[in-house]
Write a structure and sequence with these properties.
The protein contains ten helices and 14 strands. By secondary structure, it is α+β, with helices and mostly antiparallel strands.
């Protein structure tokens, strides 16, 4: 029996989230937490998807979804599980429409170390790994850039407008600089970071409502767009400042000037707060990290809105105060994760 295993890293945006959607520069890295998709054959036709061991702020999800396709099937579980299924469903639909896949029974098992809905690229990781595994399984010729573009198309279909950063990191790993949708891979020093993740999980969710859950990032992006249109002149200056900040951060990282890098992270956080994507809960995590001696701290990823519960993650450059900062984050109700940058990108293996 042929078995395909594809794994990809989580991502952390160091500088430029949100601003990159409007053509400004963003610097991102892969971190050492991975998501894995294993594809094998099954006797029954159609797709059987098992999502196991998905961390959601301390919970472990285990569920099975018998058929993916285009039909909706009720399944009572947590909303983050339904979000993961939504991306798998859209990925399979996209591949069936654009490539010669399908026509036989397929088993997919997804396991992950990446918290969901935490700004760490779990959606992109799911898309990239699923696409790579299914293409390999069905013998579809492809390359890394083709996989990245396919995954970005799926993310756009679900979110409405998606930055290419997440899928680039999931595919290539390492560091990438993104500007005007162009992706440039970089060789930079490894950073020792802390990711502070916080969120609240509703008790149950009907899987037929997957679209509602998968729109979290879309709602945040649309909120930024609305504010930008209301205060266009002011926001233009903010966006230009963010672009220059990313350029300066790249110089600091190339020089391994971590004090300057941390200071720039603090400035980037202030710009994200100015455009309205720093909810109170994440702001508190940044404040506690800074007060505990961090060189720098900021929201990473889409951020959040107070009206949506303030879930998300912060990225911390700890300097010499790593243990102290982790305790401070945990006391504030966050999950504090060690993270190293520059993780290897997509890996695909075949077993017979």
């Amino acid at each position: 029996m042929k078995i395909i295993r594809a794994s990809v890293p989580a991502k952390a945006i160091l500088f430029g989230e949100h601003f990159v959607v409007y053509g400004k520069r963003a610097l991102a890295t892969a971190i050492n937490r991975r998501l894995e998709v294993v594809v094998s054959s099954r006797e029954k036709s159609g797709y059987h998807v098992k999502i196991a061991n998905i961390p959601t702020f301390g919970l472990q999800l285990n569920l099975e979804h018998e058929k993916v396709g285009r039909e909706a099937y009720p399944y009572k579980d947590y909303d983050n599980a339904s979000k993961a299924i939504a991306y798998v469903k859209k990925t399979i639909e996209y591949l069936e429409e654009n490539y010669e896949i399908g026509g036989e029974g397929v088993e997919l098992e997804i396991s992950s170390e990446i918290p969901l809905s935490a700004g760490l690229g779990s959606s992109a990781a799911t898309c990239v790994a699923t696409i790579a595994a299914l293409k390999e399984y069905f013998g579809v010729a492809t390359d890394l850039e083709g996989i990245r573009k396919d995954a970005h198309s799926v993310e756009k279909a679900v979110q409405g407008n998606a930055s290419p950063v997440d899928t680039a990191i999931s595919t290539y790993g390492g560091y990438v600089l993104v500007e005007n949708a162009e992706v440039k891979r970089l060789e930079l020093a490894e950073l020792d970071l802390i990711v502070g993740t916080i969120g609240s999980i509703p008790l149950s969710m009907d899987l037929t409502k997957t679209a509602e859950i998968s729109l979290k990032t879309k709602r945040i992006v649309e909120a930024v767009k609305a504010r930008r249109e209301s205060f266009s002149d002011i926001f233009e200056h903010i966006f230009d400042a963010a672009d220059e900040l990313t350029a300066q951060a790249l110089i600091a990282l190339e020089r391994e000037d971590f004090v300057t890098l941390g200071a720039l992270m603090n400035v980037n956080h202030g710009l994200l707060d100015a455009i309205g994507v720093v909810p109170r809960r994440l702001s508190e995590l940044v404040k506690r990290s800074q007060e505990s001696g961090a060189l720098g701290a900021k929201v990473t990823g889409a951020g959040g809105l107070d009206a949506m519960g303030g879930v998300g993650s912060v990225l911390v450059l700890p300097g010499e105060q790593k243990d102290r900062i982790k305790v401070a984050l945990e006391m504030a109700g966050a999950l504090a994760l060690d993270a190293k940058t520059g993780e290897t990108g997509l890996k695909v293996e075949q077993f017979v």
